[in-house]
Amino acid sequence: MKSLVEVVVSNNSYNTDRLFTYEVGDDQKESIRLGQRVLVPFGRGNKPVQAYVFKILGQKDTDFKVKKIIEIADYDPILTKKQLDMVEWMRENYICTYMDCINAICPKGIGLENYKVAVLKNTPKDPLSEKEEIIVGEIQKSGSASIEKLTGKFGSAKKIISALEKKDVIEIVWEYKKLENKKYVETVRLCIDYEDIDINIERLKKQRAHKQAEAVEFLRYNDECIKSDLKQITGASQATIKSLLQKGIVEIQKEEYYREPDQQDIEESDIALNDEQKAAVRHIGKGFSEGFSKPIVLHGVTGSGKTQVYIEAIEKAVSLGKECIMLVPEIALTPQTVSRFKARFGEGIAVIHSGLSAGEKYDQWRKMKKGHANVCIGARSAIFSPFENIGIIIIDEFHESSYKSEMSPKYDTIELSKIMCNMHGAGLVLGSATPSVKEYYMCKTGEYDIIRLEKRANNKLPPKIELIDMKREIDSGNRGIFSRRFLKLLGDALERKEQAMIFLNRRGYSNFVYCAECGFVLKCKRCDISMTYHKDIGGVKCHYCGHKEKMPQACPECGENALETGGMGTQRVVDEIKNMYPQSHILRMDRDTTSRKGAHSHIIQKFRRKEADILIGTQMISKGHDFPDVTFVGVVSADATLNYPDYKSSEKTFQLITQVSGRAGRASLPGVVALQAHDTTHYSIQHAKDYDYEGFYDKEIRLRKTFGYEPFGNILSIVVSGRNKSSVMNNIYKIHEGMTYVLAKKGFEDFSFIMGPSECPMAFINMKHRWQMVIRDSGIDIEFLKKIVRFVCITKRSKIIDEDVNVSIDINPSSIM
DNA sequence: AGCACGCCGACT
DNA sequence: GTCGGCGTGCTC
Q: What is the pTM of this model?
């Protein structure tokens, strides 16, 4: 009988994606716990690897040999018990490995470095060669030497080392080093009595230790000074402080320090709630006393003050001693929300988003883990906050596609939130002005609760939306980007010294470059995508792989000097507006102008301070920002996103128009929206124009039902990608074959629910060919389907699929391009 | 993944 | 006869 545990071993191999049994040593029995990180010998070479304790089996016997845990890596479990359950669930449902899930949940920066070292074993029986002597000497110097260093130092070390090993002179063993990315702040303080300070200073001066005397002088009035500050202010060096330390004059204290990512200006804004908001807070609050039975959708028009409702609900949870998670689409985009939360909850806030470095993320994680933060605000990965007792999870703008992960595991944050809430007995609030059709359907069927906020918080009417038919504009001779009405409304706003926003969901200057002579279109060398012209850099860029090139002088195909640009992007809009309104100050916000850290909030701040009249941008300008002086919003091409071969494109268009329109007239001034479109008859544009969510929903849900899309059915996509096209094709067919083989064995004859294999609509991206299979769950149980996909693509992966391709599995993908 | 084992060709 | 090339398969 041995004391046994089951662990998940940390390596990214599909072949080791299962639980392994290890023995717990007698000295470890006391401290072993679920979710802990341990170090285990693994494989034939007994290489030490990290592992995570998933099950504690207790006293058991096994019919196979077990190894012993080397050590417990950290006393406090990295994963909570609930997170372990979450890992199991994700692995099962998103068809991925244990480690895919653990990597998504755990912060980076707690790692392990492995290396082989040579140590001396026996004194040699026979005399050694000259080279062997050198190596042995090197090992002797410090008792052990890493193989890597030895081979780096001496070219032929590898051969000699193995010869020495064979002679039993040395032994190769594994060593490891724990990598910890903690930041400490060191504070210096005097540890002599106040009365003795002068005596000490005198003594130091006599010793001609002026720098030290100066430092002591400074500390007399500034006790507990941060070491780096002390150095900077008094000019003291490391040596100065060290000798003071040795003389026993000062002491240094190490404290854990949490890097605080962005020190935003914190603005206090305590707004009194209106009746609707109060009712919403009451409704949510009821859950804390009566229990939360179902998710709550908070459907509030833009500007209805949803954030204030969130704050009140979180306040309530905090006062009950519970923890809260507040999810936002992309935190870098909503600094205002963060600062409002910071104003209300102060130090107890942890902030997680993609702009943070690994170290900063780790710090925020520890802050929560240690209970120094009880509210986490962040992008989708904040759902993995290591809280033990969650009271409420809020997802703001929950319809946003950024809540679906792009990387394996391709999780759906809303789905995970539901599971988390069930485990913690917490409430789930989904807020949006434009709920996704799927979730709204759940409200209709009664699976979700719904609260409506129909009034804008300031009681203002929403801005009037004017729909402008660009076809008619062309017919009447205007071939420009902007209609006359658009320019009139923009000009009016500028004349009144108010601000304007212009939205176009495409960056760059123009989205394709073509030859007027032969019709050739410039495409990316790495992708099968047309290049976008960027006037500011005088070159073309590929928006899929980031590849940049100079703009060619002549057509690469026919050699004629006839290259022209077509289509438009934000840069061209800026150019044209600048031409028409030379006096106006224009800011552009898109991925090109915000790539630098902090550039995003810089632009926002500038526009808020009214240092510019017009803000031109993409998606980024559409959400969350509150600019009180914006009275005009222009949408250059409302139907641009409508023609994608994607079943969600209508929904996305409706949402985008509604969100953008909501930017106008948020304060006392009335707003107006100019909506330009070539196809003005489309239902998503028509309903968006009238703020008619219900009308849009009715139409959309009928279409979804007809075609069996969400929420009436599920889609599972398998994409194989790789550099070698024939290998990609070969492998997707092997997966297809593997699946149909298993299905046939289970009695299936009709495989019409599997579409493809076929080339992806975007068939070549970043030097990789892409082929896909799209599977619908009509006539087959989705859980059964997942099991088969797992068997073929994960369990039997190395038997079926070649090494040179990547397989990506996505359940209900947000797009099948 | 990463390592050991093992089977084969090129060399002392 | 032996060294080391990489193909194969296993990891508690």
A: 0.83
